[in-house]
TrEMBL record:
A Pfam family this chain is assigned to: CdiI_N
Chain intervals for the UniProt region annotation (Disordered): 143-165
Record protein name field: CdiI C-terminal domain-containing protein
Domain CdiI C-terminal residues, every copy: 38-139
Domain of life assignment: Bacteria
Organism, as annotated: Pelomonas nitida
Length: 165
């Protein structure tokens, strides 16, 4: 299963303001803190639509789902997605741009073209990866993205329930 959702209500913990979100990759669930000072939930959802469409555009496409965009030098976190035929591999990255841009458009965020580099070829040095069939991304595009999903809607799916505080 693939699901990416964000709540519309802003939260705050120790001065960090964010929108709660959730990413489901197969059996794994990642709870997200999507920074709220720069993008709105609508902008995150818009970027996710573009990222999913980019994966659908070619069987060897690379895209990225931005899960936190903020101002400053370490300005976003994303889930890099590499499609190879019918398989999509996800890797989580904190992106530190050499020259941070003052404004990164939600629709163009994936064009930053940041690729991970790995030291050596040792498996223990490689980051964690999640693999899903592309059909799960296509299902997400058909069902989730057509009606402006929220965390509450996504929690009614097969994943564990999300409790909003």
């Amino acid at each position: 299963m693939f699901c990416l959702a964000i709540a519309d209500r802003r939260q705050s913990i120790e001065g960090f303001r964010f929108f709660a979100g959730r990413l489901v990759l197969g059996e794994s669930i990642e709870f997200l803190r999507c920074a709220s000072g720069y993008w709105s939930p609508r902008q995150y959802r818009s970027q996710w639509r573009v990222a999913a469409a980019r994966l659908a555009s070619h069987p060897m496409a690379t895209s990225a789902f931005v899960t936190s965009a903020a101002k400053g030098p370490g300005n976003f976190e994303w889930w890099l997605a590499r499609r190879r035929g019918n398989t999509v591999t996800f890797t989580n990255q904190l992106v530190f741009l050499g020259r941070p841009r003052l404004h990164v458009s939600a629709e163009l965020a994936h064009e930053q073209k940041h690729r991970p580099t790995y030291r050596g070829g040792h498996q223990e040095q490689r980051p964690s990866e999640w693999r899903l069939p592309f059909s799960e991304i296509r299902r997400y595009m058909r069902h989730e993205m057509t009606s402006n999903p929220s965390v509450k809607r996504a929690s009614r799916k097969r994943a564990a329930p999300y409790v909003e505080r």
